[in-house]
Amino acid sequence: MIEMHDIWKTYADGTTALQGVNLVIDRNEFVYVVGPSGAGKSTFMKLIYREEVPTKGQISVNGFNIGKLKHRKIPFVRRNIGVIFQDYRLLPKLTAFENVAFAMEVIETPRRLIRKRTMEVLELVGLKHKAGSLPAQLSGGEQQRIAIARAIVNNPSVIVADEPTGNLDPETSWGIMNLLEEINFRGTTIVMATHNKEIVNTMRKRVIAIENGSIVRDQQRGEYGYEI
Ligand code: ADP
Ligand code: ADP
Questions:
Q1: Distance separating alpha carbons of residues 61 and 129, to the nearest angstrom
Q2: Start and end of every ABC transporter domain (predicted)?
Q3: pTM of the predicted model, to two decimals?
């Protein structure tokens, strides 16, 4: 469902972040992306959610060649990809409910469905009782759960998570990981960049290591493989 063929990415200032990446991620896989800072992990993730386009090579998600996508088609691709960030990125003036509902409003979902589906995903992440809270009234772990609810509300086939536990304590991080595992179990592909050695070495999944813009390791039930 995600295919990269000889992907290169050079930014405007001349920095080459990816050099000749090839890979296939199948439907319903759970993949960790690991590697040192500056290796190209975020760039790799941004290409999948079409925040960046490759300088060279083909990338397809669900059969769409997303490097060559016409601008007006971008929303159709993004609807099918949920994104989760280390810093949550909730809209601060909207409640938890409104943050999640907003993701459905932008794709013009009927109001009646928005209310029902938003409450359903808030329940799934265990925060129905916080629907009326503003992000500032929630803990980091709760904010990340709302961000996850927002990411899954439109039933995407893929979740891209860039260091989703990076700002959280170990116990809260495990709660987030259990939630992501449950979402994966329900049929969503998950691609997650992380520096969390303990999580990778405990929840054994496919591990792709990127160093200096290239994939240097790709193992099923792999290990973190770095000291920190
Ligand atoms: P990682 O997520 O593994 O830390 P990144 O993909 O963020 O790696 O960065 C890979 C390389 O690309 C680094 O050298 C970084 O400084 C550079 N880079 C990332 N984003 C940009 C950008 N917008 N413009 C120029 N260089 C960038
Ligand atoms: P741009 O077209 O300039 O990339 P967007 O308005 O599309 O800006 O994106 C705004 C912000 O939302 C960016 O920070 C981007 O990383 C993030 N984003 C893009 N796609 C998604 C998505 N599917 N889910 C969550 N956040 C997204």
A1: 35
A2: 2-228
A3: 0.89
